[in-house]
Amino acid sequence: MTAIGLTTTQAPFIEEVRGRGEIYIRQPYELYSEENQETWRRLYARIRPRWEKFAHPKFMEGVQNLALDPHNVPHLDDINKFLQPLSNFRAKAVSGYVPAYVFFECLKNREFPTTITIRAGDSLDYLPEPDIFHDVAGHVPMHTDRRFADVLVRFGEVAELVAEMAQGIKDEHERMRRLDSILKGMARFFWFTVEFGLMNTPQGVRVYGSGLLSSYGEIAHVLESPEVQRYPFQLEWVVNQYFEIHHYQPLVYIVDGFEHLYDEVARLEAWIKDGKLDNLSPGEPSVSEADLSSFLEAKKDHPVGA
Question: Residue 126: what pLDDT?
Answer without folding.
Answer: 67
